[in-house]
Write a structure and sequence with these properties.
The complex is a heterodimer of chains A (665) and B (206). Chain A has 26 helices and five strands. By secondary structure, chain A is an alpha+beta fold. With 206 residues, chain B is of the alpha/beta class. In chain B, strands 2-1-3-4-5-6 form a six-stranded parallel β-sheet, with helices on both faces. Classes of the chains: A alpha+beta (665), B alpha/beta (206).
């Protein structure tokens, strides 16, 4: 008992531990929680705000003072922290000024190792963004990659890894390496999901939009675009919401969707209404609007917008957005006054267009340039431009071709898959049918086999039955033959001999004579009982009448015979009937206790009916048939059968009726 | 008178022959089977032929039948062991004149021959003996009645109606009525309503 108690306790403990560990595991799976930041000092808070950066002239002064102090005080962690904050802001505002860059560089070389790794990722981040802005995509990638090598131990690290992957994806996309971009994006998605960062997820979805756009997968591009918008709306990030809307517009425009113009208008309307202050967004939306206005030939309105946006472009001073503006402007110029165009704009725009493979714009610009050159009789350049133009046209053609091919390829794949499915379905159906067929064949075969075997058995049984019947008949006939023989021997030979003996006796006394007579009579009796005298000659009717008379006189029992029968059956069959009647009558006399009996034989058209009835006490037919002492009854039944007839015995307290029906051949 | 004898038993044959001859008749021929019997009869055309029934070849009845069919004048006497009336009846069908039992041949043969010679039929008186075995030890009156009549009286004693009697004995009512009148006749009773009943009651008390 002691042992089982101990075991039981151990078992309980094991269960509890198990449950706890499970819970622990759960915790590991789920999200890292964002930590609440500790109270920061006022300067840091001030430096953090966008407002300070955008509007204060002293921003950098304050920063450098703060930063240098921290370095002096050897508070390297805090220095790193402030650098992190500032660098993030500058990246956001596309501010890659040289002094700051130098600061970063210095910190990287001198103080980096004094700070935990997690706190120094901002360095790689800044560099990466800087290289990207300058168009050095490869270097940008390398920097981002470094960040992704962090250990994902907690919320912060996961977020940094996610962000780095996201940025990496974006760069790859810019480089045209869609597959790598997708891979990086998947990783970013994974980590953002882990920390449940809505904004991160939103940015990842935006990336997907871009990638799928380039891969000409319109459906997926728009799907992810909407997903991104949703995320940003949820996280209440206005800037990114609008950015993702801008992304959506780009997507629609890229696929030349008819709803693009509408989308631009609605977004612009909402943006203006919200009065959200973002120069970049303003530039982005305005550029698009201008493009569409140009198509509608609303040149004045377009000019107006272009003019209003120009200062913003200067202010933002981002290569990316400046170029975007330039292209738009160039297009305006190209469309409105190609001859007098300020071709410098256009020329500046061309490299960007080439990078972005905006061939339509390129063709427009080249044609403008060409016209100008022709106009200026600058045939060398005109020719050069013409060549470029035809190249571009080829590219356009190629592009269209590629698009078409991609479309058809997708269609083909789908159709192929559908066909395959259909074929597979058919195959399955066929297989099923075959199986069903085989199964049913098998079943059918088994059934046939069973039926055949049963048939065989039936045949065998039938044959056996026939044989038995034949044997019975033969047995009966043989018996009769024997009895007849014995009877006649007795009667003819023995009686005769006795008679002769009687006659030849010397001393004849009355007694002897009488004795011999008696013996002769006895023998006659025995013989008669064995076999009815001269049955063949006498016939059934007379023989039965004789039998009846004898029964009456011997037993003092009244029997009526009514026989309407003339010789129809064979002698041996008639003899069987005689025997049946004999047996029945004998039974009545012995057991029935009846007052009278009647025997009738009736010959009809189709059959012969033999009836033996009495008004005795009756008996239980079934019981008697199944008991041991039923030889007589069975005799009747079997004899009937042997002559091709059927016996029926009915008995109750009022009497018994035995009916035998023999069908005439 | 010429006589033919046929019997398959040599003893019986010789015995019968000597008997017949002792009565002063001439035995034309003898044989021991039915076929030769028929042939000899056809040949000799005897006045009388004494035949055994059980013979090889044709039996006595067959010979008699053949003779009848051939319309020969020979009269047949059957000398046999068979006491059964049925056989006699059959023999009668074939126009047999005499029927004698072998065991009583010594006593009856002479008379039979005489009768048949005159052209009469002769049946052994012992023939009917066979049938009556049980002699009821009742009154003589009952002894005259047949079995059915006796049975009817039994049932009358039990006060059964004619209908009931008919049912019980598997007879028709008409038949029963007929028997009743016969009984009344035999017993010499007055033809009144319940005479039988009264008589039966009286006699059953014994």
């Amino acid at each position: 008992m002691f042992k089982t108690n101990y075991l039981f306790r151990a078992f309980l403990v094991a269960i509890v531990l198990f449950v706890f560990s499970c819970q622990k595991n759960e915790n590991k799976e789920v999200v890292f929680q964002k930590e609440v930041p500790v109270n920061e000092d006022a300067t840091k808070v001030w430096l953090r705000s966008n407002d300070s950066y955008q509007n204060s002239k002293h921003y950098f002064t304050v920063f450098y003072k703060y930063y240098n102090n921290k370095i002096k005080e050897k508070k390297y962690l805090e220095a790193a922290e402030i650098l992190d904050v500032i660098s993030t802001k500058l990246v956001f505002f596309y501010d890659f000024n040289k002094p700051f860059l130098t600061t970063i560089k210095t910190f990287d070389s001198c103080y980096r190792n004094k700070v935990p790794v997690l706190k120094t990722t901002f360095i790689e981040n800044y560099y990466a963004n800087y290289y990207y802005d300058k168009g050095n995509f490869k270097k940008s990638c390398d920097c981002f990659k470094k960040i992704t090598l962090l250990e994902p131990n907690d919320y912060k690290s996961c977020k940094k890894i996610a962000r780095a992957n996201y940025e990496l994806a974006y760069v790859y996309y810019g480089m045209g390496r869609q597959n790598l971009s997708l891979q990086a994006n998947h990783r970013a998605l994974k980590y953002y999901t882990k920390i449940n960062d809505l904004e991160g997820l939103g940015s990842v979805y935006s990336n997907y939009t871009d990638i799928y756009r380039t891969m000409h997968d319109k459906r997926k591009a728009i799907e992810y675009s909407n997903a991104a918008i949703k995320c940003f709306v949820k996280s209440k990030n206005t800037y990114d919401t609008y950015m993702s809307l801008y992304n959506k517009i780009c997507t629609y425009d890229d696929f030349s969707d008819v709803k693009t113009a509408m989308l631009i208008d609605s977004v612009l309307k909402a943006f203006n209404k919200s009065k959200f202050d973002s120069a970049v967004l303003k530039i982005a939306f305005s550029d698009f609007k201008v493009l569409y206005l140009l198509r509608e030939e609303k040149f004045d309105v377009a000019r107006k917008i272009l003019d209003s946006v120009q200062p913003l472009v200067k202010k933002v001073n981002s290569t990316n957005w400046t170029q975007d503006y330039e292209v738009t402007l160039a297009e305006y110029v190209a469309v409105t006054s190609p001859k007098n165009a300020d071709i410098n704009n256009i020329k500046r725009a061309i490299p960007l267009l080439k990078t972005n493979k905006q061939y339509e714009k390129l063709s427009l610009f080249y044609s403008v340039l060409k016209k100008q050159a022709v106009h200026n009789n600058d045939f060398k350049n005109a020719l050069a431009y013409e060549e470029e133009l035809s190249n571009v046209k080829d590219s356009i053609g190629n592009q269209q071709m590629i698009n078409k091919t991609a479309e058809l390829e997708a269609k083909y794949q789908i159709e192929k898959k559908e066909q395959q499915i259909a074929i597979d379905k058919k195959t399955i159906v066929n297989k099923n049918t075959t199986i069903a067929l085989l199964a049913s064949l098998f079943v059918g075969f088994v059934l046939v086999l069973i039926i055949y075997l049963i048939g065989q058995k039936q045949k065998k049984l039938h044959l056996e039955k026939q044989n038995t019947q034949l044997y019975t008949k033969q047995l009966l006939e043989k018996t009769e033959e024997e009895r007849k023989r014995i009877a006649s021997d007795l009667h003819d030979s023995v009686s005769h001999e006795l008679l002769s003996l009687k006659n030849s006796l010397e001393e004849k006394t009355q007694a002897t004579n009488q004795k011999i007579d008696e013996i002769i009579n006895d023998i006659r009796s025995i013989s008669r009982n064995l076999h009815p005298i001269m049955f063949d000659k006498i016939g059934l009717k007379e023989s039965i009448n004789q039998m009846v008379e004898r029964a009456e006189s011997v037993n003092n029992f009244m029997v009526t015979a009514e026989i309407n029968y003339e010789k129809v059956l064979s002698s041996s069959d008639e003899l069987q009937i005689y025997r049946i009647v004999q047996e029945a009558l004998s039974n009545i006399i012995k057991y029935a206790d009846a007052i009278a009996a009647k025997i009738s034989i009736t010959e009809n058209e189709n059959n012969i009916i033999i009836e033996i009835k009495d008004n005795g006490k009756g008996f239980n037919v079934e019981e008697t048939l199944n008991s041991k002492s039923s030889f007589g009854l069975h005799n009747i039944i079997e004899r009937s059968r042997a002559i091709g007839g059927h016996a029926n015995i009915i008995s109750n307290v009022k009497g018994t009726i035995i009916t035998i029906e023999i069908k005439k051949a | 008178m010429r006589i033919l004898i046929a019997d398959d038993h040599p003893f019986t044959l010789s015995g019968t022959k000597s008997f017949v001859e002792s009565y002063g008749y001439r035995v034309e021929d003898t044989c021991s089977n039915g076929i030769s019997a028929l042939n000899l009869i056809k040949l000799h055309l005897p006045d009388i032929a004494i035949l055994d029934i059980n013979m090889p070849g044709l039996d006595g009845l067959d010979v008699a039948k053949a003779i009848q069919e051939s319309k020969l004048k020979t009269k047949i006497i059957l000398l046999t062991m068979h006491k059964e009336m049925t056989i006699y009846k059959k023999a009668k069908e074939y126009g047999v004149y005499g029927y004698i039992l072998k065991e009583h041949a010594q006593t009856e043969l002479e008379k039979c021959l005489q009768q048949v010679k005159k052209g009469h039929e002769y049946i052994s008186i012992f023939l009917k003996d066979d049938l009556i075995k049980d002699t009821p030890n009742d009154t003589n009156e009952l002894a005259n009645l047949t079995l059915s009549e006796r049975k009817i009286i039994e049932l009358i004693t039990q006060q059964k109606t004619t209908k009931q009697i008919a049912e019980l004995l598997f007879l028709s009512e008409k038949t029963v009525e007929g028997h009743r009148s016969k009984i009344i006749d035999k017993l010499g009773l007055p033809k009144e309503k319940n005479t039988l009943l009264i008589w039966a009651m009286q006699n059953s008390k014994k």
